[in-house]
Amino acid sequence: MNTNAYDTMMIPTIPTPDELLDKGFRRAKKAADKVRTSKVPRRMKGKKIEETRVIAACQIIKDSLKMILNRVPSIEQLPEFYQDYIDITVGVDEMKKSLGALNWAFGILTQLEKDFGSKIRRSDSEKATMYQRQAYGRIASVVNKIKKDLNFLDFAKAKLRNMPTIDFEAVTIVIAGFPNVGKSTLLRQITNAEPEVANYPFTTKGIQIGHLEINWKKIQFIDTPGLLDRPIMDMNDIELNAMVALEHLADTILFIFDGSETCGFPLENQLNLYNEIKKVFNLDTIVLFNKMDIVKTKEIDENYVNQYINQFNEVILISAQDGNGIEKILNKIESIEKTQKEEKFEKY
Ligand SMILES: Nc1nc2c(ncn2[C@@H]2O[C@H](COP(=O)(O)OP(=O)(O)OP(=O)(O)O)[C@@H](O)[C@H]2O)c(=O)[nH]1
Ligand SMILES: [Mg+2]
């Protein structure tokens, strides 16, 4: 069983059609040169050289294609989180289409290799050279036909480079909330992760992960980009990836409110988002009110904030920046068990 799908998700370097052809033809020439200096009977030599060029060119290009096809795992076999992540980031259909095109080219090259190989063997010497040229033309045309597919895979490689490494065995706590409420600050406080923290919204653009062990229990915290209280249809790819993390990975949600509203968003909207997430995901939540250091010192109307705090049975008041309240979060988290998700591990 391979639970670290990420290792297998690395897309290898993707060549351009020209690079594929150059390599194929160059190596084929070398193979043919060997025949030239070999002891093949003279009258056979010309044909043997052409046959070798065609077969070697096909095989070398096929090897490159096969290597790519083998190294990119079939998408259905990945945990659902990765499938969704790939779908949002580059598109699963396009990915499959491109891999399908490489497979198609592989098949055609096998056919060309066979057909032209036997044509050359059955022909006389002069015709052999003509067939070799024809074969090279066909090979070039097949490889050029998958140009956009190779391009796409190269693009996907770059886009998926930052795909997060998920530990599917650890208890997973997803940190969610409005932009700028202090999610990344909290991740920095709790774990050794060092996500960027800044006093403007939408700082975090991808999924960030920090690890922690409490009493030998592995816990994984996932910091997500800030979400707004808006319909899923209106979300951009970055927000959708945060939702997908909630859906597939979270055992518990740490939902952060910014009690000071210095994030720039009213508590009312933050509460709407909380309710929406509760509705969409049937998950336990730990509710945090952050930035309580400024609520206390900056004469923000405490009654106003309390009116929101009092809506919850259980709330932890914190200052992620000062580290106040972090102990309480950890105590709470200690008792959380991994929920059984229907990730399809059996497939590995
Ligand atoms: N006073 C105070 N400021 C805080 C606290 N926690 C975070 N901040 C500040 O709030 C701002 C936003 O913090 P981030 O941790 O980047 O917030 P975020 O939720 O990750 O934001 P996005 O990634 O943009 O969604 C930064 O300027 C932090 O220094 C806190 O407890 N008290
Ligand atoms: Mg952040």
From TrEMBL:
<dbReference type="Pfam" id="PF01926">
    <property type="entry name" value="MMR_HSR1"/>
</dbReference>
<dbReference type="GO" id="GO:0005525">
    <property type="term" value="F:GTP binding"/>
</dbReference>
<dbReference type="InterPro" id="IPR031167">
    <property type="entry name" value="G_OBG"/>
</dbReference>
<dbReference type="InterPro" id="IPR027417">
    <property type="entry name" value="P-loop_NTPase"/>
</dbReference>
<dbReference type="InterPro" id="IPR041623">
    <property type="entry name" value="NOG1_N"/>
</dbReference>
<keyword id="KW-0547">Nucleotide-binding</keyword>
<dbReference type="InterPro" id="IPR005225">
    <property type="entry name" value="Small_GTP-bd"/>
</dbReference>
<dbReference type="InterPro" id="IPR006073">
    <property type="entry name" value="GTP-bd"/>
</dbReference>
<dbReference type="Pfam" id="PF17835">
    <property type="entry name" value="NOG1_N"/>
</dbReference>
<feature type="domain" description="OBG-type G">
    <location>
        <begin position="171"/>
        <end position="338"/>
    </location>
</feature>
<protein>
    <submittedName>
        <fullName>GTPase Obg</fullName>
    </submittedName>
</protein>
